[in-house]
């Protein structure tokens, strides 16, 4: 008598989503994907593949139209990156990735590529701007004395330590018993 094993259910991979005024970016987080198939039409993006013998797939009807000829795909051992251009560039930002209202549980915001709608691409703030100036000011220029640093340390040269005359011993009673010897 032959027994059949049930087919492995198809899972949806984690997909990271971001956009700018002109493009959509998707990152499919799967390691060592085999048999990948990505299809992009004007209104739909679909993916299928397997990782460690487990089949994965998704099919998303897109919020707006895109240009399938602009699909750019990069596969690494850790993920697959997709990018493609929006057909109507005057629309600017889409309110969501999929056409239907609601949330796709496997789609998350890609905060590493997140761009606010009001943010201009050419005017992205540099998160490290001014750090060298602040560091140089704190260091007092390569080892020189900086009086501002002294103020930051509490007004003394003890690297923020309490002054020597500010002892907590004055709060202790004078008639404390001697400690017992632990070796007895």
Task: Provide a compact summary of the structure.
It holds the Pfam family CS. 11% of the residues are buried.
Q: Can you characterise this structure?
A:
The structure is a single chain. The chain has 184 residues and is mainly beta. It has a domain at 14-117: Immunoglobulin-like, CATH 2.60.40. It is built from 2 helices and 8 strands, in the order E-E-E-E-E-E-E-E-H-H. It has helices spanning 131-143, 147-152, and strands at residues 14-19, 23-29, 33-40, 44-51, 54-61, 72-75, 80-85, 107-109. Strands 6-7-2-1-8 form a 5-stranded mixed beta sheet, with no helix packed on it. Strands 3-4-5 form a 3-stranded antiparallel beta sheet, with no helix packed on it. It is elongated and about 85 Å long. The relative contact order is 0.15.
């Amino acid at each position: 008598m032959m027994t059949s094993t049930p087919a492995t259910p198809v899972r949806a991979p984690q997909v990271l989503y971001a956009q700018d005024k002109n493009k959509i970016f998707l990152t499919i987080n799967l390691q060592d994907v085999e048999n990948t198939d990505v299809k992009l039409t004007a209104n739909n993006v679909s993916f299928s593949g397997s990782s460690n013998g487990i089949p994965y797939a998704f099919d998303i009807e897109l919020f707006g139209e895109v240009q399938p000829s602009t699909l750019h795909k990069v596969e690494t051992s850790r993920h697959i990156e997709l990018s493609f251009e929006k057909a109507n560039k005057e629309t600017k930002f889409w309110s969501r990735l999929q056409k239907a209202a609601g949330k796709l549980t496997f789609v998350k915001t890609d905060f590493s590529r997140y761009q606010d709608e009001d943010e201009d691409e050419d005017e992205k703030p540099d998160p490290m701007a001014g750090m060298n100036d602040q560091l140089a000011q704190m260091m007092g220029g390569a080892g020189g004395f900086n009086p501002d640093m002294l103020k930051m340390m509490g007004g003394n040269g003890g690297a923020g330590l309490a002054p020597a005359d500010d002892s907590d011993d004055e709060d202790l009673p004078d008639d404390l018993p001697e400690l017992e010897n632990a070796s007895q």
